[in-house]
Specification:
Helix content: 55-70%
Oligomer: single chain
Number of helices: 3
Strand content: under 5%
Distance between the termini: 30 Å
Shape: elongated
Number of domains: 1
Length: about 120
Amino acid sequence: MNKAKNTSTKTSITKADLKKRAIKEFVLGAVVAGAAGAISYASYDAAASSATGGTYTIYTGAIALGAVYAVKGLFTLLFPSLVLKWSNKSSASTKAAKQPAKAEAVVEDEDGPVAPKNEKIEF
């Protein structure tokens, strides 16, 4: 009786891989926040130097998103062991959530419990 083996592979993140990803996130976040800040300042400067005044735009969403990515990357760089620990807990809870729940029905009649039939019950 041959049973099919589960061929799914568990991906393991090493500290070196985590640090590479953290550096990319930090740099990308800093570049996005810096570029959005620079464009916002240029827009303000153009409006302020106009003789009649003008309108300007501040790109708060891009600045905030870049700042969040930069802080996340910096945190991961400073505390890689903590991030790996959290990641392992998260993957363990996700694996437990993917397993289907098993239910067994107990049927009783006048004489007491009756052995359950091999019926599949899905919810």
